[in-house]
């Protein structure tokens, strides 16, 4: 178990290569509240240590760094020509590169973290290139390591990126972690407050764009034998707590025709969920053309849950996602209507409650073209794909245009210690990110 006092001194060498970035991922992986795996949560000593370590790499590269009022760690490089021409850097156009530094429990070492460190390496590259007199950029570059994307401590996700987008909600400050500590108290222990978090907003001076590099967290790129992909958008998600309520009864004495078995109803509906999503993805439903649609029943709890009792109740979850919110909601309506039909036919009742909702986010076409150009620059044909997982870019999209670059990960495994990438793919991602930034510069001019 780590604490801020036991973390090794800040690194003294800048991040320049893919090998440097992977070593830095290993360094951050050691900053954990758990002895048995990676666990780094918002507003903890581990969060502070990760910020301090990242600040060390920025300092080593000659870059300015600071922590904002929500606990996000920032770095900045401004081209000398811009600095010389401006009285101050306030209002200077800037492109932000970022992702998150927090983790889920028992995490892998690349989810979020790799994207932040590639951003640090990209800023380092442009600063070093400017020192040689090579042509510079027409805007400043910033990198951000968001403090909370996963939501593992307080349940509310994307807290860091919501803050900079001007979407901080004061009622979040009353939400408690598993130890009963309210978010507001945790902010104060970190030297911050709800007021400082709200003031982290960049709405009055938004960036010209945001680019996020992230492992895919899925198997598509690996199946296509491609290292990188351009993200077209992030799926919107809705989640529900679902209940079928029947009648418990003796397993030996209740005739089959007279049963009100809640589990059988739930099983029938679960298969209907799978069938609809499969048909939509396969293009068998002309009325629902969004092939990104996925639907999952992830939890099922039986009541009373005894081997010799007919289940009288089942509690399930439903997670349904798609890039097109209207298509997603049309599929959802069909699934909920089917649940009511199944319940009525079996003599049960059905009810559900929404527990989460997030709209889909489309990536900016100009930034997608820049990422396509970055991928082409490394010799790979551009390839576009959607993201079914949520990312900080979802919140930042309320502030400025967003784009994403996906990096292949082994077997698509994520949120797990087996997360794996290759040094060659990381090198390609860094080169593509640099080329993407250059493509943005061409479009900006």
List the helices and strands and how they pair.
Layout lengths: L17 H12 L15 H16 L3 E4 L5 E5 L2 H6 L8 E7 L12 H19 L8 E7 L12 H6 L18 H7 L4 H5 L10 E7 L4 H5 L3 E7 L1 E10 L3 E2 L11 H20 L12 E3 L3 E4 L5 E2 L2 E10 L2 H22 L2 E10 L2 E2 L2 H13 L6 E4 L4 H5 L5 E6 L15 H22 L1
Helix pairs in contact: 1-4, 1-13, 4-13, 9-10, 11-13
Verbal overview:
It is a single chain. The protein is of the alpha+beta class and 445 residues long. It has 2 domains: 4-234 and 360-444, Aminopeptidase; 236-358, Alpha-Beta Plaits, CATH 3.30.70. Helix content is 36%, strand content 20%. It has 13 helices and 16 strands. Strands 1, 2, 3, 4, 5, 6, 14, 15 and 16 form a 9-stranded mixed sheet that branches. Strands 7, 9, 10, 12 and 13 form a 5-stranded antiparallel sheet that branches. Strands 8-11 form a two-stranded antiparallel sheet. Strand 3, helix 4 and strand 4 (140-146) form a beta-alpha-beta unit. The radius of gyration is 24 Å and the shape is elongated. It starts with 17 loop residues before the first helix and ends with a helix. 49% of the residues are buried. The model is unreliable at 1-10 (pLDDT under 50).
């Amino acid at each position: 178990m780590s604490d801020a006092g036991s973390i090794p001194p800040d690194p003294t060498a800048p991040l320049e290569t893919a090998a440097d970035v992977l070593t830095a991922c290993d360094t951050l992986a050691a900053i954990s509240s758990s002895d048995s795996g990676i666990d780094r949560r918002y507003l903890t000593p581990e969060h502070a240590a990760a910020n301090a370590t990242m600040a060390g790499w920025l300092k080593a590269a000659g870059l300015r760094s600071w922590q904002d009022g929500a606990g996000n760690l920032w770095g900045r490089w401004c081209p000398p020509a811009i600095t010389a021409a401006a009285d101050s850097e306030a209002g200077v156009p800037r492109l932000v590169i970022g992702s998150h530094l927090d983790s889920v429990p028992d995490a892998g070492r690349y989810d979020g973290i790799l994207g932040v460190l590639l951003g640090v390496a990209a800023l380092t590259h442009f600063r070093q290139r400017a020192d040689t007199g090579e042509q510079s950029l027409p805007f400043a570059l910033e990198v951000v390591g968001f403090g909370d994307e996963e939501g593992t401590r307080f349940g509310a996700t994307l807290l860091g990126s919501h803050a900079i987008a001007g979407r901080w909600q004061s009622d979040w400050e009353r939400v408690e972690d598993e130890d009963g500590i309210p978010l507001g108290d945790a902010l104060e222990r970190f030297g911050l407050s709800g007021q400082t978090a709200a003031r982290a907003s960049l709405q009055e001076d938004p960036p010209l764009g945001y680019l996020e590099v992230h492992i895919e967290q899925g198997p598509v790129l690996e199946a296509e034998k491609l290292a990188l992909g351009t993200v077209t958008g992030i799926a919107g998600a809705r989640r529900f707590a679902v209940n079928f309520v029947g009648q418990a009864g003796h397993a030996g004495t209740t005739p089959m025709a007279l049963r009100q078995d809640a589990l059988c109803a739930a099983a029938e509906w679960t298969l209907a969920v799978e069938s609809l999503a499969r048909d939509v993805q396969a293009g068998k439903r002309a009325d629902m053309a969004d092939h990104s649609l996925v639907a999952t029943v992830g939890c099922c709890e039986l009541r009373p849950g005894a081997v010799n009792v007919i289940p009288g109740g089942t509690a399930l979850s439903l997670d349904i996602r798609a890039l097109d919110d209207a298509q997603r909601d049309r599929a959802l309506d069909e699934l909920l209507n089917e649940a009511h039909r199944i319940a009525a036919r079996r003599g049960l009742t059905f009810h559900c409650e929404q527990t989460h909702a997030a709209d889909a986010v489309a990536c900016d076409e100009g930034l997608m073209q820049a990422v396509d150009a970055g991928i082409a620059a490394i010799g790979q044909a551009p390839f576009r794909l959607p993201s079914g997982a949520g990312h900080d870019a979802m919140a930042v999209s309320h502030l400025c245009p967003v784009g994403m670059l996906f990096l292949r990960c082994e077997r698509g495994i994520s949120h797990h210690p087996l997360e794996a990438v290759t040094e060659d793919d990381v090198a390609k991602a860094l080169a593509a990110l640099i080329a993407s930034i250059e493509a943005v510069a061409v479009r900006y001019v």
